[in-house]
Write a structure and sequence with these properties.
The chain is α+β, with helices and mostly antiparallel strands. Helix content is 52%, strand content 18%. It has three domains: 159 residues, PAS domain (Beta-Lactamase, 2-Layer Sandwich); 86 residues, Signal transduction histidine kinase, dimerisation/phosphotransfer (DHp) domain (Helix Hairpins); 152 residues, Heat Shock Protein 90. The protein contains ten helices and twelve strands. The strands form two sheets. Strands 6, 7, 8, 9, 10, 11 and 12 form a seven-stranded mixed beta sheet that branches. It has a five-stranded antiparallel beta sheet with strand order 2-1-5-4-3. Helix 4 packs parallel to helix 5, helix 6 packs parallel to helix 10 and helix 7 packs across helix 9. The protein is rod-shaped, with a radius of gyration of 51 Å.
Amino acid sequence: MKSTLYLKFILLYIVFGFLSLFTTSILGQQLLLNQLENNASQSLYKEANVMATTYLPSYFSNNMTSWSVHSQLSAMKIYLEATLWFVEEDGTLITSSNLGTATAPAMIEDFDPAEIGNSQYIVGRYHGYFDEDVITIMAPVIQGFQTEGYLLIHKPVSTLEETCTQLMTTVHIILGAVYVLAFLILIGFHFFVFRPLRKITEAATQYASGNLDYEIPVYTQDEIGYLSASLNYMSAQLKDMEDYQKKIVANVSHDFRSPLTSIKGYVEAMTDGTIPPELHEKYLKIILFETERLTDLTKDLLTLNEFDTKELLLDKTRFDIQEMIKNTAASFEGICTVKHVSIELLLLPQDVFVFADARKIHQVFYNLLDNAIKFSEHDSSVTVEVTRRNDKIFVSVKDHGIGIPKKELNKIWERFYKSDLSRGKDKKGTGLGLAIVKEAIQAHDEHINVVSTEGVGTEFIFSLTRVD
């Protein structure tokens, strides 16, 4: 088997790792940096507004000196890790607290309080006063309902990038751990899915080549194990079916060959004069008997073929089952007279209607009654009884004949099967009668049972659905 599927999973695993690393490094880092900038701007904006509304207005009311403001800004510089400028309305610097080597201009050129717009911050070098990008926050300082100045906070973006790098290092470590775990999953897939699947594929190849003895060595209690068990069961069933077909062919060949050999032998003997003309009538009767055997066998095979090919369409109608039983039993009068066998009918007092295929049910009852008479001893009786239980009608056919050995009860439904006790009595039987009976009853979704004691007799009971 080519490891195409396995290689595809390896390739997908590598592509997954590459895309995960690429996406996390490029897209993830940028998204994280944007989020950090947004969070930092919100925090700085809150701090700037607090100072601009509660502390810095005191400067314009002459309650605070510029040195005091400088001291406060210097303290905030350490806390915020940012540069703070306190300017007048026109951008003239009042005092500042620089961070790093950047120096505050005496007056901000082109100062425009509206340059931030609707956003809380801007990112850039702020009019070229910084050597790196900074986040700039601006808050107005209002005294007596009039804007007197502004507080500007400049936080280097590099500090956020350092934080972002530290966080991304953690993310990469987690990603590496996930990648290792994914590799373990791939190994698990190899042992628990791919290898059993390869064995199943090998089994399919063996079955296709005709080796139905091959057994899949997978016994896990999961879907793969269930599939393997199902395929093993299927191969066993196919093998049994193959043996069964060979047996069917052998039986059919034997049952056709025997009467054909007899017919051919007698015809040749009559043709070449071995059998004199005065004995022709005797042997023509034998030829007729063998011909009837062939006709019965062909008819039974065609009937069973209807069931096997699923082409049987039941013509269900409402009919009186007891009337059919009476008429069928009457047709055996001649045979019963010769064997001195009586048929006892135990029927219900009222009409009993069932919903079934009358022709198929007639064939079922005919075969059962024919067997009962055939295997009954002389001067004995056959009992046919009809009983009712809820919405079911049960028909029983009971004889007092040779019976069926217990070990052979499960085999009587097999095609061409004849018990050892019946071979001496059933000269004309094809061994298909009971197989036809069971197939017909099962086609009606009904049941048939048999109770037999060797040397005492046999009783067959089948059910039908009752209708009013």
